[in-house]
Design goal:
The complex is a heterodimer of chains A (109) and B (116).
Chain A: E1 5-7, E2 10-14, E3 19-24, E4 32-38, E5 45-50, E6 56-59, E7 62-67, E8 72-77, E9 86-93, E10 97-99, E11 103-108
Parallel strand pairs in A: 2-11
Antiparallel strand pairs in A: 1-3, 3-8, 4-5, 4-9, 6-7, 7-8, 9-10, 9-11
Chain B: E1 5-7, E2 10-13, E3 19-24, E4 31-37, E5 43-50, E6 53-57, E7 65-68, E8 75-79, E9 88-95, E10 106-107, E11 111-115
Parallel strand pairs in B: 2-11
Antiparallel strand pairs in B: 1-3, 3-8, 4-5, 4-9, 5-6, 7-8, 9-10, 9-11
The chains are: A mainly beta (109), B mainly beta (116).
């Protein structure tokens, strides 16, 4: 099981503001990095699977970057909306997912 | 969109009793997983399953745990003699392929297991 860390643990964002947060993971023997969006009482929803150093992926107002050499990924939310409120999980994949503890984002209207 | 379904959503069981958690993975998926999250802790991998065999398991998945695919659709997790520390949210997930690590895993809504 890989040691995956996320920071901050939680953050509050004003509606319309942009934000970002970090996932760090072991850079040795890297296979893939997954981001999930998890709303309360729902199942984690896959956002991105990233494999290559320098990868950038985008889904609407949410985007992510990957640095496999130094072992970190950033998730960005542009122009936050209340519906972006959720816990964002990253997981390193070596054919099983090792999760971080998540960053809980609360968007205030 | 196809989804992973889990039943029941909440299970309350006396310590020492057996419990079976049920999952119906997405129909064309070949790899199945169980994870759990103890309240306040990270989501943890328990076991992966492919071709009617366990392909990998964590140290959490001891002799008290077993998995089965009893028919073409269900994937079950059995805990033989539950302990208080088994109380957690249990998630089932499935993916089309495992060897290609680009595949996302699709999760169910989870079963909250409460051991009294």
């Amino acid at each position: 099981i890989l040691n995956v860390e996320q920071s901050p643990q939680s953050l509050h964002v004003q509606e319309g503001d942009s934000t970002n947060f970090t996932c760090s993971f072991p850079s040795s023997n890297f296979y893939a990095l997954h981001w999930y969006r998890w709303e309360t009482a729902k199942s984690p929803e896959a956002l991105f699977v990233m494999t290559l150093n320098g990868d950038e992926k985008k889904k609407g107002r949410i985007s992510a970057t990957l640095n496999t050499k130094e072992g970190y990924s950033y998730l960005y939310i542009k122009g936050s909306q209340p519906e972006d409120s959720a816990t964002y999980l990253c997981a390193s994949n070596d054919y099983k997912l090792s999760f971080g503890a998540g960053t809980t984002v609360t968007v205030r209207a | 969109e196809p989804e992973v379904t889990q039943t029941p959503s909440h299970q309350v069981t006396q310590m020492g009793q057996e419990v079976i958690l049920r999952c119906v993975p997405i129909s064309n998926h070949l790899y199945f997983y169980w994870y759990r999250q103890i309240l306040g802790q990270k989501v943890e991998f328990l076991v992966s399953f492919y071709n009617n065999e366990i392909s990998e398991k964590s140290e959490i998945f001891d002799d008290q745990f077993s998995v089965e695919r009893p028919d073409g659709s269900n994937f079950t997790l059995k805990i033989r003699s539950t302990k208080l520390e088994d109380s957690a949210m249990y998630f089932c997930a499935s993916s089309e392929r495992q060897l290609d690590s680009n595949q996302p895993q699709h999760f169910g809504d989870g079963t909250r297991l409460s051991i009294l």
